[in-house]
Write a structure and sequence with these properties.
Layout (H helix, E strand, L loop, with lengths): L1 E15 L6 E15 L3 E5 L6 H8 L7 E6 L2 E2 L5 H11 E4 L11 H11 L4 H14 L15 H13 L5 E5 L7 H17 L3 E5 L3 H4 L4 E6 L2 E2 L3
Parallel strand pairs: 3-8, 3-9, 6-7, 7-8
Antiparallel strand pairs: 1-2, 1-4, 4-5, 9-10
The chain binds adenosine-5'-triphosphate and magnesium ion.
Length: 230
């Protein structure tokens, strides 16, 4: 079964040239068509600035394409009303960022439970979910700590736990190991892939690192705003 169907996707940004004061168009994604199956793991590779983050943002419903379509389970994202798109982001997608994006003023447990609280779920059941997730990610002894007290790898494992706590169908990870050394990267990737398989989640992972990309079942390369064939 297909989860994502991407057709003729384009994205341009407009910026003001500070010298000429004229609006300039930057074509980032020029034409991307891609199908991603349920439970598949795909890594997106490409040079800095080629549009990887832009693509992930469009897939996650954070950014509207300039042209083309993204179908998620047969529904076109750009046809969804604002509330439906918000629900899509909240319930179907889990985001993992290079810089973890944990809330510094909250403990790891509070950070991980947040998506359940926002979804008005039962508190006791949510705490249990956090404890199970923390066990799987080997951070049970860090739940009462604040992000500043954790290592980068532990922070990223907590962020992965937060992204997966409500078992989304799609996980979008943007350079999840970009701030980590090779040992922590390996630990994080092994846990991420293990969870992705156990929970049957589709994963799209952006990376510069070929070794990290190899954790996924398929590698897609972007060159000059398009998918590089071969
Ligand atoms: N909001 C924006 N307004 C204008 N230009 C933007 C905006 N966001 C991104 N860009 C430009 O679009 C291009 C692609 O950016 P993007 O962040 O998608 O690249 P990337 O492949 O993720 O790069 P990196 O590997 O460095 O993270 C870059 O040239 C960037 O400067
Ligand atoms: Mg990027």
């Amino acid at each position: 079964m297909k989860l994502l169907d991407i057709y003729d996707l384009e994205k341009s940004y407009y910026i003001e040239n500070s010298r000429t004061m004229k609006r300039e168009k930057i074509e980032v994604i020029k034409n991307i068509s891609l199908q991603i199956a349920e439970s598949e793991s795909v890594s997106i590779m490409g040079k800095s600035g080629c549009g990887k983050t832009t693509l992930l943002k469009m897939l996650g419903g954070l950014l509207a394409p300039s042209a083309g379509s993204i179908y998620y389970k047969g529904e076109r994202l750009s046809d969804l009303r604002k509330e439906c798109l918000e629900k899509y982001r909240r319930t179907q997608v889990g985001f993992v960022f290079q810089d973890y994006r944990l809330l510094e003023c909250m403990t790891i447990k509070e950070n991980m439970i947040l998506p359940c609280v926002l979804d008005h779920q039962d508190v006791e059941a949510s705490i249990r979910k956090v404890e199970i997730m923390a066990e799987m990610l080997k951070i049970s002894d860090r739940l009462e700590h604040y992000p500043s007290e954790l290592s980068g790898g532990e922070k990223q494992r907590a962020a992965i736990g937060r992204a997966l706590i409500n078992t989304p169908s799609l996980i979008l990870a943007d350079e999840p190991t970009g701030n980590l050394d090779s040992v922590s990267s390996k630990i994080v990737m092994e846990l991420l892939v293990k969870l992705q398989r156990e929970l049957n989640v589709t994963m799209i992972l952006v990376t510069h690192d070929k070794e990290i990309a190899n954790y996924c079942s398929r590698i897609v390369k972007i060159v000059d705003g398009q998918i590089c064939k071969g």
